[in-house]
Design goal:
three-stranded antiparallel sheet; mainly alpha
Length: 82
């Protein structure tokens, strides 16, 4: 990852990208270990590299796809038994 050319997203931009209603939800997700922490950009500013947020989203989609494939396999096995 080349962070020198990577766009830095604000908390509000990250919330919008994740389709969250508030930026507080990001803090809750970070505390729960469900989202990547940002980095300090100033006294009261936090930022995320766009590529890291996109990678996190891609990982969530990959997890969902793996789960769906597992469910489909189980259903096929059940159908083969019956």
């Amino acid at each position: 990852m080349n962070t020198t050319q990577d766009k830095i997203l604000t908390k509000r931009e990250v919330a919008a990208r994740l389709r969250l209603r508030s930026t507080t939800s990001i803090d809750d997700m970070i505390r729960a270990g469900e989202f990547i922490p940002g980095f300090r950009r100033g006294l009261r500013r936090v930022g995320w590299f766009e590529s890291e947020v996109n990678a996190w989203l891609t990982a969530r989609v990959d997890e969902r796809n793996a789960l769906m494939a597992e469910i489909a396999t189980k259903n096929q096995r059940k159908a083969a038994i019956n």
